[in-house]
């Protein structure tokens, strides 16, 4: 583990710390607390900073640092008296909160976990760490321990945060902390939905989200955070699968992580472009990579509601559509923004589509267009998800045969190029637009024009249009055929 001297030096030399030290010199005592010290203890880079200050000086402290950094300061939480400073180039932020007790040690004892309850004085040259709960020793032993018996009752969001921190840093949960969490796990759904999702999405973005999900189970949180996921346990499947729906779901997530680490095997020459795509931010600081992992977790979430068994045959007809609606409901509960919700529901709705095309290989340009259009805006993403899904269904049925699996992987590899091109260039544009169709054909704007334009897009993608005149001819034929 990093030595105390190195920890203190790393924390105090971080850019926001040096700016804050110069801006606040000669004033009231200010302590660096929480995540920055923890990150330094675990050898991680210190980027952002949390400061604890005497109550009543939060705004003045934040505005002084913002002025020195040429950044902005604003109130983050009136209820908790917290202010945030964001640097001019947005490369770091600094949060300022008032002491929650009469002194810094009392404040630290009220924090969530011992590894987060360590402080060092900002304006000092000593190597002292203030550590009243033994966090330094727990960091060395790589243990996550509640700072007090009130940790989870004071803030039930800490139930999720425990899994997030432990999975992010590879920590073991202290047994008494697990007992404490399980005793209050029924409160996991109380925090605001967006706060729950912020913790959950960070679990899904860490190096081993499967481990993070296991920690949520260990803490007794899953059924309160995601009852829809809990409902997958014990749901038996047909002979194409060797696991129940819950086990299959975790296997798909694990297989997706493996594919992420070896994209060349599944995407061939498009591995680099696919990797760049996955790093794109969709919304709310969530990348496509993280959202795809969440989509893997939700992809079969409609199966319990659609399970039917007749003559020994198990089916889940329509689970993709039902699952997409359930996903939108989860997003609404978590107060996820519209763009991210649409992305996740599209993944669930489209995850079966590639498998339906295997028997049509080689695909015509028209069939490729149909796939890309139906899966927009997740065509490349859901293609990778379908690979993980197919590799995780290893039962004795025909879909699970080696031949079908190979065909699926081959088709996916072929589909990545047009899917990534579509994402980069957008859908094809026919040589005429709706206004030209309305004027030339004398029809009113409306659904009929939209249907004609869609057909012209498909024809343009398939290379069937030589120019505007041919596009108008086809448009006229289509319009006549609808009369």
Q: In summary, what is this structure?
A:
With 483 residues, this protein is an alpha+beta fold.
From the alpha-carbon coordinates, what is the Rg to the nearest angstrom?
A: 27 Å
**Helical/strand content category:** alpha+beta
Instruction: Give the CA-CA distance, first to last residue.
Output: 77 Å
Largest sheet: 6 strands, mixed
Specify the helix fraction band. Answer: 55-70%
Uncertain runs: none
Strand content: 5-15%
Structure summary, number of beta strands: 12
Number of helices: 27
Globally, the shape reads globular
Average pLDDT metric: 94
Strand order of the largest sheet: 3-4-5-2-1-6
The figure for the number of domains is 4
List the main descriptive attributes of the protein structure presented here.
27 helices; Hydrophobic Seed Protein; alpha+beta; Beta Polymerase, domain 2; 483 residues; two-stranded parallel sheet; 6-stranded mixed sheet
Molecular structure report:
With 483 residues, the chain is α+β, with helices and mostly antiparallel strands. It folds into 4 domains: 1-141, Beta Polymerase, domain 2, CATH 3.30.460; 142-225, Hydrophobic Seed Protein (Orthogonal Bundle); 241-425, no CATH class; 434-481, no CATH class. The chain is built from 27 helices and 12 strands. The strands form 4 sheets. Strands 3-4-5-2-1-6 form a 6-stranded mixed β-sheet. It is globular, with a radius of gyration of 27 Å. The relative contact order is 0.06. The mean pLDDT is 94.
